[in-house]
Amino acid sequence: MNKNRIIFSAVTLLLSTLFLQGCGGSDEAVEEKAKPLEFAQKVVIEEVDIPYIASVTGTVKAIARVTLSSRVNGHIIKLMQREGDRVAKGDLLVEIDASTLQADLANAKAALAEAKSAIHGATSTLKNASREYKRAQSLFKEKTVSKSFLDQKQTEFERSLSSIEQFKAKVGQAESQIQLIQVNLNFSKIYAPFDGVIIAKNIEEGELSSAGRSLLVVEDTSNLEVVAEVKESDLPFINPKLLLENGVDVQLTSLDMTIPGTLSHIIPSGDPFSHTFKVKVKLTENKSVLSGMFARLNFQSDPRKGFLIPKNMIIERGELTGVKVLKDNSVHFRVVRTGAKYGENIEILSGLNIGDEVVFSPFQK
Q1: Domains in the chain, ordered, with CATH?
Q2: What is the SS3 assignment for 108?
Q3: Cα–Cα distance between 359 and 36 in angstroms, integer?
Q4: Which residues make beta-bridge pairs with 48?
Q5: Cα→Cα distances 7→1, 4, 53, 259, 315, Å
Q6: Measured between alpha carbons, how far is 202 from 216 in angstroms, rounded to an integer?
Q7: Residue 338: beta bridge partners?
Q8: DSSP structural state of residue 218
Q9: To pair with 229 at 20 to 30 A between CA atoms, which of 43, 113, 190, 304?
Q10: Which H or E run includes 237?
Q11: Strand 189-191 to 214-219 pairing
């Protein structure tokens, strides 16, 4: 009985010893004894400067985008362009029937001519009335005419004077009416405000347009920007001075390209519901980039300290991510937590310490 108990205790001690040697700790396992020539790469962990990069998504938009609306009522008699057509500044795009306005202009000019003619006649009448009134004043002083005769001449003079003022007012009204109609006549023709592309057409030739109705939308496709929403937690790390010096990397996923951009605006008022702030980045001209495309902005700010290792040193084992660490002349698998990628390197957020030696072999698993 005692002999069996001794054999069982010895076996238990042996198994415990083997288990501890195989595990080497909660996050490490001894892989093998080190053979220096088998390591294709070795990195000694040290703190390096890592740029802070805030990555946000946005949409490509035209800086100059104009909705052309009708300012007058009338049928569309000419619609010169369609969606997708390129236009040059000053090109005629839409013409609205102006026959009613032209008739109104003719009537206003006739009213002006009539008022001016009336002033001419009233001026002659006023001169006669003024002369008769002065004569009546002299005769009244000489007591050769009655007071009623003087009052009559005064009334005729004042009536003539009032008529002159009324006709002058009519001249002013007619001139104002002519000016307004001429302005509206100018509005009956709509021209391209800049070089660009027609991106929307909201009316057809022959339709009746009313004042204020949207007709066309024009964009300047040569000047584009990315508009993005930045979280308030990332806003303090966006250094405008640094971004103006270094620029902003703009990733266009659909085109599989990255182009440089320039920070143009940080809107100082945020959205009270999403707690984000609008940021605008002007793009360098690229004919492949179109308004409406998805874009990602990478804002690089002041660096911070951290650990970087080559991406190829990372090992995936099921749900575990780790690296091989050389310790006490043995190779251990160490579980790590990774962060952002920087070119061929990747940041290690936890699992490694300063001085650790990370090794790599092209045959490692």
Answers
A1: 24-50+305-360 (2.40.420.20), 55-63+221-303 (2.40.30.170), 65-97+189-219 (2.40.50.100), 99-187 (1.10.287)
A2: helix
A3: 10
A4: 306
A5: 10, 5, 63, 73, 42
A6: 6
A7: 348
A8: E
A9: 304
A10: none
A11: unpaired
Q: E-strand spans in 254-293?
A: 257-266, 276-283
Integer Cα distance of 200 and 217 in angstroms? 5
Phi, psi at 161, each rounded to 5°: -65, -40
Tokens representing 263?
């920070």
Which structure tokens are listed for 17? 């010893």
**Which residues lie below 8 Å from residue 347, measured CB to CB, with a gap of 6+?**
50, 306, 307, 308, 338, 339, 340, 341
Output the six-digit token pair for 133: 């009134």
Look up residue 47 and give its amino acid.
E
Q: Return per-residue pLDDT of the chain as tens, 365 residues.
A: 444 443 333 333 333 333 333 333 345 555 555 455 466 688 999 999 887 777 889 999 999 999 999 988 999 998 887 888 999 999 999 999 988 888 989 999 998 888 888 888 888 888 888 888 888 888 888 888 888 888 888 888 888 888 888 888 888 888 999 999 898 889 999 999 999 999 999 988 888 988 889 999 999 988 999 999 988 877 777 777 767 777 888 999 899 999 988 888 888 888 889 889 999 999 988 889 999 999 998 877 777 889 999 999 999 999 999 999 998 888 889 999 998 888 889 999 999 999 999 998 765 55
Residue 238, Cβ density class (10 Å: 0-12 exposed, 13-18 middle, ≥19 buried): buried
- What pLDDT is recorded for position 33? 54
Q: Which of 302, 245, 263, 339 is nearest to 51 (CA)?
A: 302
Rounded to whole angstroms, the Cα distance separating 39 from 30 reads 16
Indicate the helix (H) or strand (E) that contains 74.
Answer: strand 74-79
Six-digit token pair at 34? 């080190």
Residues 6+ away with beta carbon under 8 Å from 256: none
End-to-end CA distance of the chain: 48
What is the distance between the alpha carbons of residues 4 and 189, in angstroms, rounded to a whole number?
A: 110
Half-sphere exposure for 144 (CA within 13 Å, toward CB): 6
Give me 152's structure tokens: 């009559």
